[in-house]
Design goal:
- The protein is α/β, with parallel strands linked by helices.
- It has 2 domains: about 200 residues, 2-enoyl-CoA Hydratase, Chain A, domain 1, CATH 3.90.226.10; about 45 residues.
- It contains 11 helices and 10 strands.
- The protein has a 6-stranded mixed beta sheet with strand order 1-2-3-5-7-10. A 4-stranded mixed beta sheet has the order 4-6-8-9.
- A hairpin with a 2-residue loop joins β1 and β2.
- α5 crosses α6.
- The longest helix is centred in the middle third of the chain and has 20 residues.
């Protein structure tokens, strides 16, 4: 059972956990406590077999997450700054990217700095038509520190990533969709229902195969791994799972599969 938190709201419906960053007075900015609570909620959900997909969004209509809480690190030194970035990578951004269940970002409003980095760490992004996205860090005399310099280039290409980062300019939802930064754009009132529609499809599939697919896709972006070799190895392992046996039998018997999840 998912715990209750101070800065994060959780709701489970039909196998989908919706996590809402709940600091609307601060435009849902990420402070240390919020990062810790997000990590705890995701950690707990990973062990809940009935949860098949995660949606992350922000409270209110103005912002998904408008960035990191600048007041918290304004006086940091070099060592503290490095630790801030390293902790964020470990607890949230790399953690979500390598999470065993698909994570969908429901981007309602501003997704800036750490907020866009949070959305980019998710596996799928759906934006409301009022969304604005950007990495404005250079206007504060710093650079993106939660994976933004890497993931933005992967998603939109090196040239556009350079432009967005060095100008600190924002883009709207339609441009984000055109660039491949958003999978879909919806009206704001349809945002969560679209995310839940995607989550419902995921819930019908093999959780073992999905977990493996996430691992293999990410391997292709890891310079220490050969994605093709990882695919061959993991593809072979699937033949030893109960989900594979059920999926194949269901196909041959012309019925819907009921995956056991192992």
């Amino acid at each position: 059972m998912i715990m209750t938190y101070e800065n994060v709201l959780t709701e489970i419906e039909n196998g989908i956990l919706t996590i809402t960053v709940n600091r609307p007075d601060k435009l849902n900015s990420l402070n240390n406590k919020t990062i810790e609570e997000l990590h705890e909620a995701l950690l707990e959900a990973e062990n809940e077999k009935d949860i098949k997909a995660i949606i992350i969004t922000g409270a209110g209509t103005k912002a998904f997450v408008a960035g990191a809480d600048i007041a918290e690190f304004a006086d940091f030194n070099v060592t503290q700054g490095r630790q801030l970035s390293a902790t964020g990578h470990f607890k949230i951004f790399n953690f979500i990217e390598n999470y065993s269940k698909p994570v969908i970002a429901a981007i309602n409003g501003f997704a800036l700095g750490g907020g866009l980095e949070l959305a980019m760490a998710c596996h799928i992004r759906v934006a409301s038509d009022n969304a604005k996205m950007g990495l404005p860090e250079v206007s504060l005399g710093v650079i993106p520190g939660y994976g933004g310099t890497q993931r933005l280039a992967q998603l939109v290409g090196k040239g556009k990533a350079f432009e967005m980062i060095v100008t600190a300019d924002m883009i709207n939802a339609e441009e984000a969709f055109r660039l491949g930064l958003a999978n879909y754009v919806t009206k704001q009132e349809d945002l969560l229902s679209k995310c839940k529609e995607i989550g419902s499809k995921i819930a019908l599939r093999s959780s073992v195969a999905i977990k493996t697919a996430i691992k293999v896709i990410n391997a292709g972006y890891n310079k220490q791994e050969n994605g093709y070799e990882v695919e061959i190895e993991e593809f072979g392992k699937m033949f030893g799972t109960q989900d594979f046996k059920e999926g194949v039998n269901a196909f041959l018997e012309k019925r819907k599969a009921n995956f056991p999840g192992n």
